[in-house]
């Protein structure tokens, strides 16, 4: 287990090697889910019936070819929903990673019975959940927003309570649970209550990300940068100092012309138990669809597949991506500021007129 060390952070690899290198693979292992969250970045790909995955031997062979591999993430859908996925894909991948000394993360909504997690979770490094609610009414509205049939409040309450009790039980067993909140016009107003609940569930880390304007979330409004900055500041003031706060794909940069943005960047670098994770997608990570074999830069982007593991080595696909016009547009790097440039969706949403390559960091954050 790791504390305040984030092997998904792409900065160190880029700084040490002088170039971006493939260190992380994310597998989409299911297209099934028992929820339909309004913010879901892959909601339109969710199915009612699962297809057949590619042979496990092929997945492992492609991983064997990546000498620089440091992390594996498993996502969906809800990866734990189908026992066959757990038995034939998740458990073998987690055991492979453990034997190779590779860190692992699994993304789950944690709403299934606790017994569904206990048989394999000892081999997992990070259990990642999403938490954007004040109470069961929020959970009911948000998680069933796009469901194709009516779901009662009582059903939602059962799953909401199951999620919270599971988190408490697993963290007591020593499982590292990281709860992610997506800042939206709704959640940013209630970040204090959301953080309090995450602390009470025993989660060791609270991740804070922008709402990604893709898939189900394409029609949702984004908060302004002023609202985002205010939310981050409020969270820093009230946070539990024992819980690691991780800001992912932060929409503020050390090359900003705004003093407030540069001051915030410096503050986050100096705050204890707080880290900023540069965007890993395309800088050290690729996503592999375990059904089709398609390889993409991110599981919620609009860039077409870059290759397919049936015939392509993942390292070759990554090198192909580094020459892609989009990669060349956004892959800037400021070592003194510990900045690796913007997430593509964040840049398009908040900084469509910026040419990041012509900008220079105006602050340094030390070693």
UniProtKB/TrEMBL annotation:
GO MF terms held by the record: 4 iron, 4 sulfur cluster binding; catalytic activity; metal ion binding
Entry keyword S-adenosyl-L-methionine: yes
Residue ranges constituting the Radical SAM core domain according to the UniProt record: 17-246
Tagged with keyword Transmembrane: no
Key words, A-Z: 4Fe-4S, Iron, Iron-sulfur, Metal-binding, S-adenosyl-L-methionine
Domain of life of the organism encoding this protein: Bacteria
Pfam family of the protein (one): YfkB
Protein's name according to its UniProt entry: Radical SAM/CxCxxxxC motif protein YfkAB
Provenance organism: Polycladospora coralii
């Amino acid at each position: 287990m790791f504390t305040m060390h984030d092997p998904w952070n792409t900065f160190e690899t880029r700084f040490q090697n002088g170039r971006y290198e493939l260190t992380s693979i994310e597998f989409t292992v299911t297209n099934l889910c028992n929820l339909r969250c309004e913010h879901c970045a892959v909601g339109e790909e969710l199915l009612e019936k699962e297809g057949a995955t590619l042979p496990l031997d092929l997945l492992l062979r492609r991983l064997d070819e990546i000498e620089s591999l440091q992390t594996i993430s498993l996502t969906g859908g809800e990866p734990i929903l189908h026992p066959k996925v757990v038995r034939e894909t998740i458990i073998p991948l987690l055991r492979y990673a453990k034997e190779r000394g590779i860190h692992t993360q699994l993304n789950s909504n944690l709403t299934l019975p606790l017994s569904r997690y206990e048989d394999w979770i000892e081999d997992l490094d990070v259990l990642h959940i999403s938490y954007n609610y004040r109470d069961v009414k929020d959970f009911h509205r948000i998680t069933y927003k796009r469901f194709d049939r009516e779901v009662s409040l009582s059903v939602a309450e059962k799953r909401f309570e199951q999620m919270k009790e599971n988190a408490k039980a697993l963290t007591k067993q020593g499982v590292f649970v990281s709860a992610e909140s997506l800042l939206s016009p709704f959640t940013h107003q209630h970040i204090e209550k959301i953080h309090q609940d995450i602390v009470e569930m025993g989660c060791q880390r609270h991740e804070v990300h922008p709402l990604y304007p893709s898939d189900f979330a394409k029609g949702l409004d984004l908060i302004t940068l002023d609202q985002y900055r205010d939310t981050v500041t409020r969270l820093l003031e009230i946070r539990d100092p024992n819980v690691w706060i991780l800001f992912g794909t932060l929409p503020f940069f050390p090359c900003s012309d705004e003093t407030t943005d540069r001051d915030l960047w410096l503050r986050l670098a100096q705050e204890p138990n707080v880290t900023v994770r540069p965007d890993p997608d395309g800088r050290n990570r690729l996503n592999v669809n375990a059904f089709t074999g398609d390889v993409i830069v991110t599981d919620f982007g609009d860039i077409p597949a870059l290759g397919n593991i049936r015939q392509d080595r993942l390292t070759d696909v990554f090198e192909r991506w580094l020459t892609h016009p989009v990669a060349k547009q956004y892959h800037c790097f400021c070592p003194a500021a510990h900045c690796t440039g913007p997430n593509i969706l964040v840049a398009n949403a908040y900084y469509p007129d910026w040419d990041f390559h012509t900008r220079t960091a105006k602050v340094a954050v030390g070693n």
